[in-house]
Design a protein that fits this description.
By secondary structure, the protein is of the alpha+beta class. It is built from six helices and five strands. It folds into two domains: 11-131, HUPs (Rossmann fold, 3-Layer(aba) Sandwich), CATH 3.40.50; 145-188, no CATH class. The strands form two sheets. It has a three-stranded antiparallel β-sheet with strand order 3-4-5. A two-stranded parallel sheet has the order 1-2.
């Protein structure tokens, strides 16, 4: 989904889909996120600030109800093409207070899919990394030969700006700058 976030590009999606020779693809342009504002990732008037992982509240980078939009589009398309599973890489520990990264959110959304689709439709949301540590995700990706070199992450720089980084070796998107520095696996 191209959500007009300051940090998102459709390019990694296409590169990864090419890598796995995915034939059926759907790119959805959701300019609503940019129009809605309410997040430092979508609103040009809100500065991106580093997350305060020990503080209360929801960080400025929370895009209101974004994962619900992603799941809605995925469920709609899955119903059309006969898909059975929706995989999403949400991680509770990573959520930093994001309400749409909690297991109970996905349980509730699963109920909505079950109620809101045709009776013969059976779509299951899968959150395989939701309880995993970053290091466990990297190790799993290495065992599965994930194409990390095609993935991107966006990290805050010291000046509070954004820096998009392409991973060279092992870390998955979303790894912290500290984790990336430890693994020496980023390229600006």
């Amino acid at each position: 989904m191209d959500s007009e976030q300051k940090t998102v590009s459709v390019v990694p999606f296409e590169e990864i889909a090419d890598h796995y020779t995915v034939k059926q693809r759907l790119v959805v342009f959701a300019g609503t996120f940019g129009s809605n504002g309410g997040s430092s990732l979508t609103d040009k008037d809100i500065a991106v600030t580093p997350a305060n992982l020990s503080g209360p509240g929801i960080p400025t980078s929370y895009v209101p109800f974004r994962n619900a939009h992603l799941l809605s589009v995925a469920a709609s398309w899955a119903e059309v093409v006969g898909g059975r599973y929706i995989y999403i890489g949400a991680r509770r520990r990573r959520s930093s207070g994001y309400p749409d990264c909690r297991p109970e959110f996905y349980d509730a959304f699963q109920r909505a899919i079950n109620l809101g689709t045709k009776p013969e439709t059976h779509i299951e949301i899968r959150t395989p990394v939701i309880a995993m540590r970053k290091s466990e995700i990297v190790e799993l990706g290495q065992r599965l030969n994930a194409p990390f070199e095609l993935t991107w992450s966006v990290l805050h720089t010291v000046g509070g700006g954004l820096r998009r980084l392409r991973f060279l070796r092992s870390p998955s998107p979303g790894l912290s700058l500290r984790g990336c520095e430890r693994s020496n696996s980023i390229s600006a």
